[in-house]
Amino acid sequence: MRGKKRVFLGILSFSFIFFTVLLIAFVYSLNSGKTEFYRYFMIATAFFLLTVTVLVGIALAVSFYVILSRRSSKSAISFISSFVDLFYPIVLFASKVLRIKEEKIEQSYIAIKNFFFNKDLKRYEPKDILILAPHCIQYSGCKFKVTYDIDNCRKCGKCQINDLVNLKEKYGINVAVATGGTLARKIVKDLRPKVIIAIACERDLTSGMQDVKQIPVYGIINDRPNGPCFNTRVDVSEVENMVKKLLNGG
Q1: How far is 86 from 91, CA to CA, in rounded Å?
Q2: At what angle do helices 36-68 and 5-29 cross, to 10 degrees?
Q3: pLDDT by residue (tens digit) across 164-202?
Q4: What InterPro entries has UniProt attached to this entry (predicted)?
């Protein structure tokens, strides 16, 4: 379930064109006003649209620069990453107008954020790395809860908690399981990681990436062969490959 960066950027481009056309229409209508109040209102509205249009244009330009260039400055990546978060609601609204599924927008958003993450990849110590997984990855019939202590796993092999524990033991990293956003934020606050590998569905990953702006987050969308929030799975090889990259600095 990998998203495509072009979906998000395409809708952002559509928004840029839309605001540009709207701005031209408002400027044209300035001459048709019959009262001073009307003219001032239209000028204020046109100024607002101009600001939004310029910001969207800058965001698009920097986005394509970062994506197409082999080398990108950290400031440029940080700048455009913030703009992606800022304009996410606009892109989401535009996608509803265009009748594009919200899940596709979320997947595209995650793909863009992961792309920027890889562009600014650096080396971390094992103690600074946190794998944060959802509780639904645990076998639903298991009696041993791992949300507060993943070492409670008995390694029966019925779910992939066993695989995550193995990664924890193999690389000496932190691994935690959260039941929701509140517990996830508490785990991050308690462990104070410098980088997070987050496993979740599209919606939870998107909201989580927007919540934790001060810590780099790499998102991995889980597999849901049994439906949402029930005995979900994850590509463990992708998780391990990212752990290796973080330990080696790329």
Answers
A1: 10
A2: 160
A3: 999 999 999 999 999 988 899 999 999 999 999 999 999
A4: DUF116
Q: Token pair of 142, please? A: 């298991």
**Can you say how many angstroms the Cα of residue 127 is from the centroid of all Cα atoms in its chain?**
23
Q: What is the pTM of this model?
A: 0.82
The answer to whether 137 and 234 are in contact (CB under 8 A) is yes
- The single residue listed with the structure tokens 């979900």 is 232
| pLDDT for residue 33 | 55
pLDDT, one tens digit per residue, over 121-130 is 899 999 999 9
Buried b (16+ CB within 10 A) or exposed e, 90-104: bbbebbeeeebeeeb
Q: Give pLDDT, residue 52.
A: 76
Which one-letter DSSP state was computed for residue 3?
A: -
- Listing DSSP states for 52-120 in one string gives HHHHHHHHHHHHHHHHH-S---HHHHHHHHHHHHHHHHHHHHHHHHTT--HHHHHHHHHHHHHHHHHHT
CATH code 3.40.50 for 126-248: yes
Q: Are 59 and 84 in contact (CB under 8 A)?
A: yes
